[in-house]
Amino acid sequence: SPRRPAQAEGDEHQGEAVVDDALEGRRGGGVRFWTGAGLLDLLLLALALLVARAAVRAVPRLRRAAVPEALLAGLVAWLLGPALLGWLPLDPAALERVVYHGLALMFIALGLRRPAGGRASPGARSIAFAVPFIAVVQGAIGLGIVLAWSRWVERVHPGVGWMLPLGFSQGPGQALSMGTAWEDSSGFAHGGQVGLVLAALGYAWCAVVGVGLFHLGRLRGWVVPPEPTASPLAALGGGERPAATAEGDMEPLTMQLVQVGVTYLLVYGALRGLSVLLGGRPALASMVWGFHFILGLLAALLVRTVRDRLLGAWRAVPEAVEAQQDLLLSRIAGVVVDLTAVAAIAAVRVELVRSMGPILLLLALVGGLATAWLSLWLARRAFPGDPFGHALVLFGMSSGTLPTGLVLLRLADPDLRGEAASDVILGVTGAVVLGAPLLLVVMPMPVLGWPDAYPAAVWRTLGVLALYAAALLLGWWRLGPLRLHRPLRRLWPDRPA
Fold this sequence. Notes:
The structure is a single chain. By secondary structure, this protein is mostly helical. It is built from 19 helices and no strands. It has helices spanning 5-23, 39-58, 60-64, 69-80, 92-111, 122-152, 159-170, 172-186, 191-220, 252-277, 282-288, 292-314, 319-346, 350-382, 387-399, 402-412, 419-442, 444-448, 456-479. Helix 7 runs antiparallel to helix 8 (172-186). It starts with a helix and ends in an 18-residue tail after the last helix.
C-alpha cells in the first residue's frame, strides 16, 4: 500500500540525517572519504573551469574579446557559491588554502626549470626594472589613498594600501599570504580577504582594460607582426610527446610532481625551524609564514642545483629529456595558476565588499589607471623592439600575474614567438631580485608600527618609496635602454631614429 505523506516525509529527513552523519564521520561507509582536504572544493573548481571553457566556445563575443577562462570560471564559482546563490557547497577556508599553497607551488615549479638560455636583451633588462618600478608606484598610490581616507573619512590600516601592489602586481596568492600574516602580527582585520578582493579587481582590469588597450593599439597602428625569435615560451605550444622512459622508471610527470612535493616539504621544515628561532618575537614569526613563496623559490633553486650536479655525475641527460622536464614543470605551474585564480575570486566575501567597497574600488580605479598609463608611457621609451607587445605583457603582469600578461600578449603574438615573449622570461628573474627589498624591507615598515607609529611611519615609508623609485630609474638608465623621449607628456612619442 502507498505510504502516508507524513511517513514519507519522515523517511526523507531520516535519509538526510544518515548522509549528514556519514559526512561527519559518525557512521561507516565510503562517504567519509569525501570529507576533509578540500577534495569537493577542487572538484567544483574543475566544474567551474569546464563551464567557463564551454561558455567561451559557445559565445563568439567572449572568444573574440579574449576573456581569460580562469577569470570567467572564478566569476561562475563566486556567483554560484556561498557568497551569493549558495548552489555550490564551496568552503571559503579551503579556497583560501588553495590560494595560499598555490603561490608557493607556482614559484617552486618555475624555479625547478633550467634557466632560460641566452644573453639578456635590452628588452629583458627593461622588464627587470619596469615590473618593480610599477609596483613601487602602486604602493605609493595605495599609501597616499590610505592617508587621505584616514584624514577625511575613517582611519584604516596601512596594509589596505599595500594590497594594491600585492593584489595587482603580485597576484592573489601573495596578497592573501601577506594579508593573513598581518592579521596576526599587526591586527589587520580581514587582511587576507582584502588582498583577494584587490587581486580579483586586478584580474578584471587585466581582462577588460587590457583587451581595450589591444584594440586601441590596433586602431592606432601600434601592433606590428612580431619577428620570430628563439623564445623559451614557444615550446609551450608544442605537441611533442614526452620522451619514453626505461622499464621500471616513474612516469615523467610523476617525477616532476615528486620534485615539487619534496621541495615544498623542505619549505615547511624551514618555516618550522624559523618559527622556533623567532619564538620570542611572535609577530615576526607569524609574518615569516607569509613569505613561504620566497622560501619556495630559494628551495627550488637549491634542489635544482643539487639535481643537476647529481645527474651530471651519474649520467648524461639528453637535451630532449631536459626540455621535456622543463615543459612538464611549466604545465604544472600553469595548472596551479588556473586553480589559484579561480579559487581567489570564488573566495571573495560579499560582506567585506559591502563594508570596504568604496576604498577598495578607489584603490583599484586609481591604481589601474596609473598602471595602464605607465605601461604605455614606459613601453615607447624603454623597449627598442616591439614596444606595444611589451606594453601589453607589462600591463598584464602589473594587474595580475605572469600568465595573465602572456594572455594579453597572445592577442598580438598568438604563438609567443616574438621579442616580447622572450624578454619577459629572461627578465622576470631580475624583476624578482629588484623587487625583493620592497617585500622584505619596505612593506613591513608602516605595518609593524601600527597603530602607535601611525601616520608618521607611513610618511617615512613614502619617502623611502621615492628613493627606491629614483634608484630603479637611475639603474634602469645606466644598465637598460630607458630614454626619456620628448615630449614627456605624450603617451606614445615618435622616437628618434
